[in-house]
Amino acid sequence: MENYHIRDRLMALRELMREKRIDYYMIPTADFHNSEYVNDYFKVREYFCNFSGSNGTLLVWQNGAGLWTDGRYFIQAQWELEGTEVELFRMFDEGVPTMEEFLKEHMTDGQTFGFDGRVLSMLECRRYEKALAEKNIRFAYGQDLAEELWADRPDFPAGRVWVLEESVAGKSVEEKLADTRDKIKEEGAEGLFLTKLDDIMWLFNIRGCDVECNPVAMSYALVMEDKAVLFIQDKALEERTRKYLADHGIQTEEYHDIAAYIKEMKAGSKILLDKRYCSYMLYKLLCGKHTIVEKKNPTEALKAVKSPAELARMKEIYLKDSVAVTKFICWLKNNIGRQEITEIDAADYLEKLRRQIPEFVDLSFPTIAGYKENAAMMHYEATPENHAVLKPEGMLLVDSGGQYLGGTTDVTRTIVLGHISDEIKLHYTMVTAGMLKLTHARWLYGCSGRNLDILARQPIWELGLDYKCGTGHGVGYILNVHEGPQSLRWRFSETADETVFEEGMDITNEPGIYIEGSHGIRIENVMVARNDVKNEYGQFMHFDTLTWVPIDMDGIEEGYLTEEVRAYLYEYQRQVFEKISPYLNEEEKIWLRRETRAEDDVNP
Fold first, then answer.
1. What is the pLDDT of residue 603?
2. C-beta of residue 472 within 8 angstroms of C-beta of residue 455
3. Same fold for the pair 4-149 and 162-302
4. Residues paired with residue 368 on neighbouring β-strands, in sequence order
5. Using only C-alpha atoms, what is the Rg of the chain?
6. Domain ranges in the chain?
Protein backbone atom coordinates (compact mmCIF):
# COMPACT_ATOMS: atom_id res chain seq x y z
CA MET A 1 0.00 0.00 0.00
CA GLU A 2 1.33 3.44 -0.94
CA ASN A 3 0.82 6.15 1.66
CA TYR A 4 2.63 9.16 0.23
CA HIS A 5 0.09 11.55 1.74
CA ILE A 6 0.95 10.23 5.22
CA ARG A 7 4.66 10.83 4.59
CA ASP A 8 3.88 14.39 3.47
CA ARG A 9 1.81 15.01 6.60
CA LEU A 10 4.56 13.66 8.84
CA MET A 11 7.06 15.85 7.05
CA ALA A 12 4.90 18.92 7.70
CA LEU A 13 4.44 17.87 11.33
CA ARG A 14 8.17 17.53 11.87
CA GLU A 15 8.77 20.96 10.37
CA LEU A 16 6.25 22.49 12.79
CA MET A 17 7.83 20.57 15.66
CA ARG A 18 11.19 22.14 14.79
CA GLU A 19 9.63 25.61 14.78
CA LYS A 20 8.15 25.01 18.22
CA ARG A 21 11.27 23.24 19.50
CA ILE A 22 9.45 19.97 20.21
CA ASP A 23 11.65 16.89 19.97
CA TYR A 24 9.03 14.16 20.47
CA TYR A 25 5.34 14.67 19.80
CA MET A 26 2.69 12.22 21.00
CA ILE A 27 -0.82 11.78 19.54
CA PRO A 28 -3.08 9.46 21.55
CA THR A 29 -6.46 8.06 20.56
CA ALA A 30 -8.74 10.28 22.60
CA ASP A 31 -10.99 13.29 22.78
CA PHE A 32 -11.13 15.78 25.67
CA HIS A 33 -12.76 13.05 27.81
CA ASN A 34 -10.47 10.07 27.10
CA SER A 35 -13.33 8.32 25.31
CA GLU A 36 -12.69 4.95 23.65
CA TYR A 37 -14.40 5.97 20.41
CA VAL A 38 -14.13 9.53 19.17
CA ASN A 39 -15.74 11.92 16.73
CA ASP A 40 -13.98 12.50 13.40
CA TYR A 41 -12.74 15.87 14.70
CA PHE A 42 -10.46 14.02 17.13
CA LYS A 43 -9.04 11.44 14.71
CA VAL A 44 -5.69 13.20 14.62
CA ARG A 45 -3.67 10.03 15.03
CA GLU A 46 -5.41 8.47 12.03
CA TYR A 47 -4.78 11.64 9.99
CA PHE A 48 -1.04 11.40 10.60
CA CYS A 49 -0.50 7.62 10.26
CA ASN A 50 -3.59 6.03 8.60
CA PHE A 51 -4.27 3.60 11.48
CA SER A 52 -8.01 3.61 12.18
CA GLY A 53 -8.31 1.33 15.22
CA SER A 54 -9.92 2.53 18.45
CA ASN A 55 -6.73 2.13 20.50
CA GLY A 56 -3.26 3.28 19.54
CA THR A 57 -0.78 6.07 20.23
CA LEU A 58 1.48 7.69 17.66
CA LEU A 59 4.88 9.08 18.58
CA VAL A 60 6.76 11.27 16.09
CA TRP A 61 10.36 12.47 16.20
CA GLN A 62 12.64 14.01 13.63
CA ASN A 63 13.94 10.80 12.09
CA GLY A 64 11.17 8.35 12.84
CA ALA A 65 7.68 7.55 14.05
CA GLY A 66 6.09 4.67 15.94
CA LEU A 67 2.59 3.42 16.64
CA TRP A 68 1.82 1.51 19.83
CA THR A 69 -1.33 -0.64 19.78
CA ASP A 70 -2.66 -3.82 21.39
CA GLY A 71 -3.14 -7.33 20.05
CA ARG A 72 -6.67 -6.72 18.76
CA TYR A 73 -5.17 -4.54 16.04
CA PHE A 74 -1.78 -6.05 15.12
CA ILE A 75 -2.93 -7.39 11.75
CA GLN A 76 -4.98 -4.31 10.90
CA ALA A 77 -2.20 -1.93 11.93
CA GLN A 78 0.41 -3.80 9.92
CA TRP A 79 -1.78 -3.42 6.82
CA GLU A 80 -2.77 0.21 7.39
CA LEU A 81 0.77 1.37 8.24
CA GLU A 82 2.31 -0.17 5.13
CA GLY A 83 4.12 2.50 3.14
CA THR A 84 3.87 5.16 5.87
CA GLU A 85 7.33 4.49 7.36
CA VAL A 86 5.63 4.35 10.78
CA GLU A 87 6.99 1.45 12.84
CA LEU A 88 4.51 -0.83 14.63
CA PHE A 89 5.22 -1.48 18.32
CA ARG A 90 3.18 -4.53 19.38
CA MET A 91 2.15 -3.81 22.94
CA PHE A 92 2.71 -6.58 25.51
CA ASP A 93 4.79 -8.67 23.10
CA GLU A 94 8.06 -9.89 24.57
CA GLY A 95 10.91 -7.47 23.98
CA VAL A 96 8.69 -4.59 22.81
CA PRO A 97 9.27 -1.45 24.93
CA THR A 98 6.36 0.56 26.25
CA MET A 99 6.24 4.13 25.02
CA GLU A 100 7.47 5.29 28.43
CA GLU A 101 10.46 2.96 28.17
CA PHE A 102 11.14 4.09 24.62
CA LEU A 103 11.10 7.77 25.60
CA LYS A 104 13.28 7.15 28.63
CA GLU A 105 15.85 5.40 26.46
CA HIS A 106 15.85 7.85 23.55
CA MET A 107 15.17 11.30 24.98
CA THR A 108 18.16 13.29 26.20
CA ASP A 109 18.43 15.94 28.90
CA GLY A 110 16.91 19.25 27.94
CA GLN A 111 14.63 17.92 25.20
CA THR A 112 10.92 18.73 24.89
CA PHE A 113 8.03 16.27 24.96
CA GLY A 114 4.92 17.73 23.32
CA PHE A 115 1.25 16.75 23.28
CA ASP A 116 -2.23 18.24 23.52
CA GLY A 117 -2.93 18.27 27.26
CA ARG A 118 -6.67 18.26 26.62
CA VAL A 119 -6.58 14.73 25.13
CA LEU A 120 -4.17 13.10 27.57
CA SER A 121 -5.50 11.92 30.91
CA MET A 122 -3.80 12.71 34.18
CA LEU A 123 -3.15 9.00 34.76
CA GLU A 124 -1.34 8.63 31.45
CA CYS A 125 0.67 11.78 31.90
CA ARG A 126 1.86 10.72 35.32
CA ARG A 127 3.39 7.63 33.76
CA TYR A 128 5.42 9.84 31.43
CA GLU A 129 6.37 12.19 34.26
CA LYS A 130 7.62 9.24 36.28
CA ALA A 131 9.48 7.64 33.37
CA LEU A 132 11.24 10.90 32.48
CA ALA A 133 11.75 12.21 36.03
CA GLU A 134 15.49 11.62 35.99
CA LYS A 135 15.92 13.72 32.86
CA ASN A 136 15.50 17.44 32.45
CA ILE A 137 12.57 17.10 30.06
CA ARG A 138 10.20 19.97 29.31
CA PHE A 139 6.51 19.03 28.96
CA ALA A 140 4.81 21.20 26.33
CA TYR A 141 1.18 20.22 26.87
CA GLY A 142 -0.60 23.12 25.17
CA GLN A 143 0.18 21.83 21.70
CA ASP A 144 -2.57 20.82 19.28
CA LEU A 145 -0.36 20.89 16.20
CA ALA A 146 -3.14 19.45 14.04
CA GLU A 147 -4.98 22.75 14.40
CA GLU A 148 -2.34 24.35 12.20
CA LEU A 149 -1.80 21.46 9.77
CA TRP A 150 -5.16 19.74 9.20
CA ALA A 151 -6.72 22.11 6.65
CA ASP A 152 -9.99 20.24 6.10
CA ARG A 153 -10.45 19.08 9.69
CA PRO A 154 -14.09 18.12 10.43
CA ASP A 155 -16.17 20.50 12.52
CA PHE A 156 -16.26 20.11 16.29
CA PRO A 157 -19.26 17.87 17.13
CA ALA A 158 -22.46 19.52 18.36
CA GLY A 159 -25.31 17.09 17.69
CA ARG A 160 -28.81 17.16 19.13
CA VAL A 161 -29.16 16.33 22.84
CA TRP A 162 -32.36 14.54 23.84
CA VAL A 163 -34.04 13.53 27.07
CA LEU A 164 -34.42 9.89 28.11
CA GLU A 165 -37.86 9.50 29.65
CA GLU A 166 -37.80 8.48 33.30
CA SER A 167 -39.94 5.41 32.52
CA VAL A 168 -37.11 4.19 30.25
CA ALA A 169 -34.22 5.44 32.40
CA GLY A 170 -35.52 3.60 35.44
CA LYS A 171 -34.53 6.31 37.95
CA SER A 172 -35.05 10.05 38.08
CA VAL A 173 -32.16 12.50 37.85
CA GLU A 174 -32.91 13.51 41.46
CA GLU A 175 -32.45 9.91 42.65
CA LYS A 176 -29.20 9.55 40.71
CA LEU A 177 -27.85 12.85 42.03
CA ALA A 178 -28.73 11.82 45.60
CA ASP A 179 -26.94 8.47 45.18
CA THR A 180 -23.93 10.22 43.66
CA ARG A 181 -23.74 12.82 46.43
CA ASP A 182 -23.80 10.05 49.04
CA LYS A 183 -20.80 8.44 47.33
CA ILE A 184 -18.99 11.79 47.13
CA LYS A 185 -19.35 12.21 50.90
CA GLU A 186 -18.16 8.65 51.51
CA GLU A 187 -14.93 9.53 49.69
CA GLY A 188 -14.40 12.60 51.89
CA ALA A 189 -15.05 15.09 49.09
CA GLU A 190 -17.40 18.04 48.73
CA GLY A 191 -17.89 17.88 44.99
CA LEU A 192 -17.33 15.78 41.88
CA PHE A 193 -15.83 17.01 38.63
CA LEU A 194 -17.12 14.61 36.02
CA THR A 195 -15.55 14.35 32.55
CA LYS A 196 -16.59 10.86 31.36
CA LEU A 197 -19.29 11.31 28.72
CA ASP A 198 -21.39 8.19 29.31
CA ASP A 199 -21.38 8.84 33.07
CA ILE A 200 -22.70 12.34 32.46
CA MET A 201 -25.42 11.09 30.12
CA TRP A 202 -26.47 8.47 32.69
CA LEU A 203 -26.51 10.94 35.58
CA PHE A 204 -28.73 13.51 33.87
CA ASN A 205 -30.90 11.06 31.86
CA ILE A 206 -29.94 12.64 28.56
CA ARG A 207 -28.39 11.28 25.39
CA GLY A 208 -26.57 12.79 22.41
CA CYS A 209 -25.09 11.91 19.04
CA ASP A 210 -21.58 13.38 19.01
CA VAL A 211 -19.80 10.02 18.64
CA GLU A 212 -20.79 7.45 16.03
CA CYS A 213 -22.94 4.70 17.58
CA ASN A 214 -22.37 6.09 21.10
CA PRO A 215 -25.32 8.25 22.24
CA VAL A 216 -23.24 10.81 24.11
CA ALA A 217 -22.81 14.58 23.92
CA MET A 218 -19.66 16.59 24.51
CA SER A 219 -20.04 17.72 28.11
CA TYR A 220 -18.60 18.15 31.59
CA ALA A 221 -20.38 18.18 34.94
CA LEU A 222 -19.75 19.59 38.40
CA VAL A 223 -21.80 18.10 41.23
CA MET A 224 -21.72 19.91 44.57
CA GLU A 225 -24.01 19.49 47.58
CA ASP A 226 -26.11 22.51 46.60
CA LYS A 227 -25.89 22.49 42.81
CA ALA A 228 -25.34 20.43 39.68
CA VAL A 229 -23.74 22.16 36.71
CA LEU A 230 -23.80 20.72 33.19
CA PHE A 231 -21.30 22.17 30.70
CA ILE A 232 -22.75 21.56 27.27
CA GLN A 233 -22.95 23.36 23.95
CA ASP A 234 -26.01 25.58 24.00
CA LYS A 235 -26.53 25.13 20.26
CA ALA A 236 -27.01 21.38 20.85
CA LEU A 237 -29.99 21.93 23.16
CA GLU A 238 -33.55 22.05 21.93
CA GLU A 239 -36.07 24.10 23.91
CA ARG A 240 -37.62 20.94 25.36
CA THR A 241 -34.22 19.78 26.64
CA ARG A 242 -33.45 23.21 28.11
CA LYS A 243 -36.78 23.15 29.95
CA TYR A 244 -36.16 19.62 31.24
CA LEU A 245 -32.77 20.63 32.67
CA ALA A 246 -34.17 23.81 34.22
CA ASP A 247 -37.18 22.02 35.70
CA HIS A 248 -34.84 19.59 37.44
CA GLY A 249 -32.63 22.33 38.83
CA ILE A 250 -29.65 21.60 36.62
CA GLN A 251 -27.56 24.68 35.87
CA THR A 252 -26.16 24.83 32.34
CA GLU A 253 -22.96 26.53 31.21
CA GLU A 254 -21.32 26.66 27.79
CA TYR A 255 -19.10 23.62 27.14
CA HIS A 256 -16.17 25.59 25.76
CA ASP A 257 -16.11 27.88 28.82
CA ILE A 258 -15.03 25.08 31.17
CA ALA A 259 -11.48 26.37 31.68
CA ALA A 260 -12.69 29.91 32.38
CA TYR A 261 -15.30 28.59 34.84
CA ILE A 262 -12.66 26.62 36.77
CA LYS A 263 -10.41 29.66 36.96
CA GLU A 264 -13.25 31.77 38.39
CA MET A 265 -14.42 29.17 40.94
CA LYS A 266 -14.04 30.01 44.59
CA ALA A 267 -10.97 28.15 45.83
CA GLY A 268 -10.67 25.70 48.69
CA SER A 269 -13.11 22.86 47.94
CA LYS A 270 -12.36 19.14 48.09
CA ILE A 271 -13.07 17.99 44.55
CA LEU A 272 -13.22 14.32 43.59
CA LEU A 273 -12.04 13.47 40.10
CA ASP A 274 -11.04 10.37 38.18
CA LYS A 275 -7.48 10.60 36.91
CA ARG A 276 -8.27 8.04 34.19
CA TYR A 277 -10.60 10.46 32.40
CA CYS A 278 -9.79 13.98 33.59
CA SER A 279 -7.46 15.66 31.14
CA TYR A 280 -3.98 16.76 32.16
CA MET A 281 -4.81 20.37 31.35
CA LEU A 282 -7.99 20.55 33.45
CA TYR A 283 -6.33 18.70 36.29
CA LYS A 284 -3.60 21.34 36.33
CA LEU A 285 -6.23 24.07 36.54
CA LEU A 286 -8.17 22.37 39.33
CA CYS A 287 -5.26 21.34 41.55
CA GLY A 288 -4.07 24.93 41.67
CA LYS A 289 -7.29 25.99 43.42
CA HIS A 290 -8.70 22.95 45.22
CA THR A 291 -7.77 19.86 47.21
CA ILE A 292 -8.07 16.98 44.77
CA VAL A 293 -9.50 13.64 45.93
CA GLU A 294 -8.30 11.14 43.33
CA LYS A 295 -10.85 8.35 43.18
CA LYS A 296 -12.78 6.53 40.48
CA ASN A 297 -15.97 8.23 39.35
CA PRO A 298 -18.70 6.98 41.72
CA THR A 299 -21.12 7.28 38.80
CA GLU A 300 -19.25 4.53 36.96
CA ALA A 301 -20.01 1.90 39.58
CA LEU A 302 -23.57 3.16 40.08
CA LYS A 303 -24.21 3.03 36.34
CA ALA A 304 -22.69 -0.46 35.99
CA VAL A 305 -25.23 -2.07 38.34
CA LYS A 306 -28.37 -2.13 36.26
CA SER A 307 -31.62 -1.44 38.10
CA PRO A 308 -34.52 -3.93 38.06
CA ALA A 309 -36.34 -1.63 35.63
CA GLU A 310 -33.32 -1.50 33.30
CA LEU A 311 -32.81 -5.27 33.46
CA ALA A 312 -36.45 -5.93 32.66
CA ARG A 313 -36.24 -3.77 29.53
CA MET A 314 -32.87 -5.29 28.58
CA LYS A 315 -34.33 -8.80 28.78
CA GLU A 316 -37.07 -7.81 26.32
CA ILE A 317 -34.67 -6.01 23.97
CA TYR A 318 -32.10 -8.82 23.95
CA LEU A 319 -34.80 -11.29 22.99
CA LYS A 320 -35.92 -9.09 20.08
CA ASP A 321 -32.31 -8.54 19.03
CA SER A 322 -31.61 -12.28 19.24
CA VAL A 323 -34.58 -12.95 16.97
CA ALA A 324 -33.14 -10.52 14.39
CA VAL A 325 -29.70 -12.18 14.50
CA THR A 326 -31.25 -15.66 14.26
CA LYS A 327 -33.31 -14.61 11.22
CA PHE A 328 -30.12 -13.20 9.69
CA ILE A 329 -28.23 -16.49 10.15
CA CYS A 330 -31.15 -18.39 8.61
CA TRP A 331 -31.19 -16.06 5.59
CA LEU A 332 -27.43 -16.35 5.16
CA LYS A 333 -27.36 -20.13 5.44
CA ASN A 334 -30.21 -20.52 2.96
CA ASN A 335 -28.86 -18.10 0.36
CA ILE A 336 -25.10 -18.64 0.38
CA GLY A 337 -24.06 -19.94 -3.02
CA ARG A 338 -27.44 -19.08 -4.53
CA GLN A 339 -26.87 -15.33 -4.81
CA GLU A 340 -23.84 -13.08 -4.52
CA ILE A 341 -23.43 -11.92 -0.94
CA THR A 342 -20.51 -9.76 0.18
CA GLU A 343 -19.40 -8.93 3.70
CA ILE A 344 -21.11 -5.56 3.24
CA ASP A 345 -24.34 -7.18 2.03
CA ALA A 346 -24.40 -9.40 5.10
CA ALA A 347 -23.90 -6.45 7.47
CA ASP A 348 -26.57 -4.41 5.66
CA TYR A 349 -29.12 -7.23 5.81
CA LEU A 350 -28.61 -7.65 9.54
CA GLU A 351 -28.96 -3.90 10.08
CA LYS A 352 -32.20 -3.94 8.06
CA LEU A 353 -33.61 -6.62 10.39
CA ARG A 354 -32.64 -4.61 13.46
CA ARG A 355 -34.26 -1.46 12.08
CA GLN A 356 -37.58 -3.32 11.99
CA ILE A 357 -37.55 -3.52 15.80
CA PRO A 358 -39.75 -0.63 17.04
CA GLU A 359 -37.31 0.44 19.77
CA PHE A 360 -34.32 0.66 17.40
CA VAL A 361 -32.27 3.87 17.62
CA ASP A 362 -28.91 3.07 16.00
CA LEU A 363 -26.22 0.46 15.77
CA SER A 364 -24.09 0.15 18.90
CA PHE A 365 -20.93 -0.06 16.75
CA PRO A 366 -20.20 -0.54 13.04
CA THR A 367 -20.86 -4.20 12.24
CA ILE A 368 -17.80 -6.41 11.89
CA ALA A 369 -18.46 -8.99 9.16
CA GLY A 370 -15.20 -10.79 8.39
CA TYR A 371 -14.94 -13.72 6.00
CA LYS A 372 -12.20 -16.33 6.34
CA GLU A 373 -8.85 -14.61 6.98
CA ASN A 374 -10.49 -11.20 7.44
CA ALA A 375 -12.04 -12.53 10.64
CA ALA A 376 -8.55 -12.88 12.12
CA MET A 377 -8.55 -9.06 12.44
CA MET A 378 -10.60 -8.56 15.59
CA HIS A 379 -11.93 -5.14 14.60
CA TYR A 380 -12.04 -5.59 10.84
CA GLU A 381 -14.51 -3.45 8.92
CA ALA A 382 -15.36 -4.12 5.29
CA THR A 383 -15.43 -1.09 2.98
CA PRO A 384 -16.68 -0.55 -0.59
CA GLU A 385 -13.02 -0.55 -1.66
CA ASN A 386 -11.97 -3.57 0.39
CA HIS A 387 -14.37 -6.43 1.05
CA ALA A 388 -14.80 -10.13 0.35
CA VAL A 389 -17.48 -12.07 -1.55
CA LEU A 390 -18.85 -14.95 0.52
CA LYS A 391 -18.72 -18.49 -0.84
CA PRO A 392 -20.21 -21.80 0.35
CA GLU A 393 -16.98 -22.60 2.19
CA GLY A 394 -15.18 -21.37 5.28
CA MET A 395 -16.72 -19.14 7.94
CA LEU A 396 -18.09 -15.63 8.41
CA LEU A 397 -17.60 -13.90 11.76
CA VAL A 398 -20.28 -11.30 12.52
CA ASP A 399 -19.88 -9.07 15.57
CA SER A 400 -22.74 -6.60 15.84
CA GLY A 401 -25.17 -4.81 18.11
CA GLY A 402 -27.90 -2.24 18.36
CA GLN A 403 -28.93 0.77 20.41
CA TYR A 404 -32.55 0.54 21.48
CA LEU A 405 -34.90 2.39 23.79
CA GLY A 406 -34.46 -0.33 26.35
CA GLY A 407 -30.86 -1.46 26.02
CA THR A 408 -27.61 -1.76 24.11
CA THR A 409 -26.76 -5.13 22.56
CA ASP A 410 -23.51 -6.83 21.54
CA VAL A 411 -23.44 -10.33 20.03
CA THR A 412 -20.99 -12.33 17.93
CA ARG A 413 -21.54 -15.51 15.99
CA THR A 414 -19.14 -17.29 13.67
CA ILE A 415 -21.20 -18.91 10.92
CA VAL A 416 -20.05 -21.96 8.96
CA LEU A 417 -20.83 -21.44 5.26
CA GLY A 418 -19.41 -24.70 3.93
CA HIS A 419 -16.42 -27.01 4.31
CA ILE A 420 -13.98 -26.21 7.11
CA SER A 421 -10.83 -28.10 8.07
CA ASP A 422 -10.53 -30.42 11.06
CA GLU A 423 -8.22 -27.88 12.72
CA ILE A 424 -10.78 -25.08 12.35
CA LYS A 425 -13.49 -27.37 13.72
CA LEU A 426 -11.29 -28.09 16.75
CA HIS A 427 -10.77 -24.37 17.28
CA TYR A 428 -14.49 -23.67 16.89
CA THR A 429 -15.39 -26.37 19.41
CA MET A 430 -12.92 -25.13 22.01
CA VAL A 431 -14.08 -21.52 21.69
CA THR A 432 -17.64 -22.70 22.23
CA ALA A 433 -16.53 -24.81 25.20
CA GLY A 434 -14.84 -21.80 26.78
CA MET A 435 -17.93 -19.65 26.35
CA LEU A 436 -20.18 -22.32 27.87
CA LYS A 437 -17.87 -23.02 30.83
CA LEU A 438 -17.89 -19.33 31.75
CA THR A 439 -21.66 -19.16 31.27
CA HIS A 440 -22.07 -21.79 33.99
CA ALA A 441 -19.60 -20.21 36.43
CA ARG A 442 -20.57 -20.25 40.09
CA TRP A 443 -18.48 -18.23 42.49
CA LEU A 444 -18.35 -16.58 45.90
CA TYR A 445 -19.04 -12.86 46.10
CA GLY A 446 -15.77 -10.98 45.99
CA CYS A 447 -14.48 -12.40 42.71
CA SER A 448 -13.44 -10.11 39.91
CA GLY A 449 -12.95 -10.76 36.22
CA ARG A 450 -9.38 -11.88 36.85
CA ASN A 451 -10.72 -14.78 38.92
CA LEU A 452 -13.19 -15.96 36.28
CA ASP A 453 -11.39 -15.29 32.99
CA ILE A 454 -9.55 -18.62 33.01
CA LEU A 455 -12.83 -20.55 32.74
CA ALA A 456 -13.29 -19.26 29.19
CA ARG A 457 -9.62 -19.31 28.29
CA GLN A 458 -8.58 -22.72 29.61
CA PRO A 459 -9.89 -24.88 26.70
CA ILE A 460 -8.00 -22.58 24.33
CA TRP A 461 -4.84 -22.50 26.45
CA GLU A 462 -4.87 -26.29 26.43
CA LEU A 463 -4.34 -26.07 22.65
CA GLY A 464 -1.32 -23.82 23.22
CA LEU A 465 -3.29 -20.86 21.82
CA ASP A 466 -4.58 -17.58 23.23
CA TYR A 467 -6.47 -14.45 22.19
CA LYS A 468 -4.83 -11.07 22.68
CA CYS A 469 -7.74 -9.31 24.35
CA GLY A 470 -10.03 -9.59 27.32
CA THR A 471 -12.85 -12.11 27.54
CA GLY A 472 -15.54 -9.64 28.48
CA HIS A 473 -16.60 -6.06 29.14
CA GLY A 474 -19.63 -4.36 30.62
CA VAL A 475 -22.31 -3.05 28.27
CA GLY A 476 -24.08 0.28 28.72
CA TYR A 477 -27.80 0.87 28.95
CA ILE A 478 -28.63 2.89 25.82
CA LEU A 479 -25.01 4.02 26.10
CA ASN A 480 -21.52 2.89 25.16
CA VAL A 481 -21.20 -0.74 24.09
CA HIS A 482 -17.98 -0.97 26.14
CA GLU A 483 -18.59 -0.02 29.76
CA GLY A 484 -16.62 -0.43 32.97
CA PRO A 485 -15.54 -0.87 35.61
CA GLN A 486 -16.28 -4.62 35.39
CA SER A 487 -14.32 -6.72 32.94
CA LEU A 488 -13.06 -10.23 32.28
CA ARG A 489 -9.34 -10.49 31.61
CA TRP A 490 -6.38 -12.29 33.13
CA ARG A 491 -3.77 -9.55 32.73
CA PHE A 492 -3.41 -7.07 35.58
CA SER A 493 -4.50 -3.49 34.91
CA GLU A 494 -4.66 -0.66 37.39
CA THR A 495 -7.80 0.76 35.80
CA ALA A 496 -10.56 -1.86 35.94
CA ASP A 497 -9.67 -5.48 36.41
CA GLU A 498 -10.09 -5.77 40.18
CA THR A 499 -13.73 -4.65 40.20
CA VAL A 500 -15.83 -7.14 42.14
CA PHE A 501 -18.92 -8.46 40.37
CA GLU A 502 -22.08 -7.05 41.92
CA GLU A 503 -25.58 -8.35 41.35
CA GLY A 504 -27.01 -6.56 38.31
CA MET A 505 -23.71 -6.00 36.49
CA ASP A 506 -23.78 -7.16 32.88
CA ILE A 507 -20.74 -8.59 31.10
CA THR A 508 -19.93 -10.01 27.69
CA ASN A 509 -18.60 -13.55 27.34
CA GLU A 510 -16.53 -13.68 24.14
CA PRO A 511 -13.53 -16.02 23.93
CA GLY A 512 -11.98 -16.52 20.51
CA ILE A 513 -9.16 -17.86 18.35
CA TYR A 514 -7.56 -15.75 15.61
CA ILE A 515 -5.10 -17.29 13.16
CA GLU A 516 -3.54 -14.70 10.85
CA GLY A 517 -4.10 -15.46 7.18
CA SER A 518 -6.56 -18.25 7.92
CA HIS A 519 -9.56 -17.65 10.17
CA GLY A 520 -11.05 -15.97 13.20
CA ILE A 521 -13.61 -17.43 15.59
CA ARG A 522 -15.55 -15.62 18.31
CA ILE A 523 -18.75 -16.61 20.11
CA GLU A 524 -20.22 -13.82 22.24
CA ASN A 525 -23.17 -13.63 24.60
CA VAL A 526 -24.10 -11.01 27.20
CA MET A 527 -24.78 -12.15 30.75
CA VAL A 528 -25.89 -10.58 34.05
CA ALA A 529 -24.38 -11.37 37.46
CA ARG A 530 -26.97 -12.64 39.93
CA ASN A 531 -26.98 -13.65 43.58
CA ASP A 532 -27.34 -17.37 44.18
CA VAL A 533 -27.56 -19.30 47.44
CA LYS A 534 -26.18 -17.67 50.59
CA ASN A 535 -24.90 -19.91 53.39
CA GLU A 536 -22.18 -20.15 56.02
CA TYR A 537 -19.53 -19.89 53.30
CA GLY A 538 -20.85 -16.61 51.94
CA GLN A 539 -22.90 -15.29 49.03
CA PHE A 540 -22.62 -17.46 45.95
CA MET A 541 -23.28 -15.93 42.53
CA HIS A 542 -23.97 -17.04 38.95
CA PHE A 543 -24.67 -15.55 35.51
CA ASP A 544 -28.01 -15.27 33.75
CA THR A 545 -27.84 -15.21 29.95
CA LEU A 546 -29.45 -12.41 27.91
CA THR A 547 -28.41 -13.51 24.40
CA TRP A 548 -30.30 -16.35 22.69
CA VAL A 549 -28.76 -16.98 19.27
CA PRO A 550 -27.96 -20.54 18.09
CA ILE A 551 -24.45 -21.95 18.11
CA ASP A 552 -23.55 -23.27 14.65
CA MET A 553 -23.42 -27.03 15.13
CA ASP A 554 -21.68 -27.38 11.76
CA GLY A 555 -18.58 -26.05 13.56
CA ILE A 556 -18.81 -28.44 16.49
CA GLU A 557 -16.99 -31.76 16.78
CA GLU A 558 -18.72 -33.25 19.82
CA GLY A 559 -15.92 -35.73 20.38
CA TYR A 560 -13.76 -32.88 21.69
CA LEU A 561 -16.33 -31.96 24.37
CA THR A 562 -16.61 -33.33 27.87
CA GLU A 563 -20.02 -34.71 28.80
CA GLU A 564 -20.55 -31.69 31.05
CA VAL A 565 -19.89 -29.15 28.29
CA ARG A 566 -21.89 -31.19 25.77
CA ALA A 567 -24.84 -31.01 28.16
CA TYR A 568 -24.35 -27.22 28.46
CA LEU A 569 -24.39 -26.92 24.66
CA TYR A 570 -27.60 -28.89 24.15
CA GLU A 571 -29.33 -27.08 27.00
CA TYR A 572 -28.43 -23.69 25.49
CA GLN A 573 -29.63 -24.78 22.05
CA ARG A 574 -32.87 -26.09 23.55
CA GLN A 575 -33.54 -22.75 25.23
CA VAL A 576 -32.73 -20.86 22.01
CA PHE A 577 -35.36 -22.87 20.17
CA GLU A 578 -37.97 -22.41 22.90
CA LYS A 579 -37.41 -18.65 23.18
CA ILE A 580 -36.88 -17.73 19.52
CA SER A 581 -39.12 -20.10 17.52
CA PRO A 582 -42.42 -18.35 18.45
CA TYR A 583 -41.21 -15.29 16.52
CA LEU A 584 -40.24 -17.15 13.32
CA ASN A 585 -42.21 -18.13 10.25
CA GLU A 586 -42.66 -21.83 9.52
CA GLU A 587 -39.65 -22.09 7.20
CA GLU A 588 -37.39 -20.34 9.73
CA LYS A 589 -38.76 -22.50 12.53
CA ILE A 590 -37.94 -25.71 10.64
CA TRP A 591 -34.44 -24.40 10.01
CA LEU A 592 -33.91 -23.45 13.68
CA ARG A 593 -35.11 -26.84 14.85
CA ARG A 594 -32.47 -28.43 12.63
CA GLU A 595 -29.81 -25.82 13.52
CA THR A 596 -30.21 -26.29 17.28
CA ARG A 597 -30.59 -30.08 16.96
CA ALA A 598 -33.93 -29.74 18.74
CA GLU A 599 -35.13 -32.49 16.40
CA ASP A 600 -32.62 -35.00 17.80
CA ASP A 601 -34.25 -37.88 19.64
CA VAL A 602 -31.23 -38.33 21.89
CA ASN A 603 -29.99 -35.47 24.03
CA PRO A 604 -27.38 -35.81 26.73
1. 44
2. no
3. yes
4. 399
5. 25
6. 4-149, 162-302, 305-595
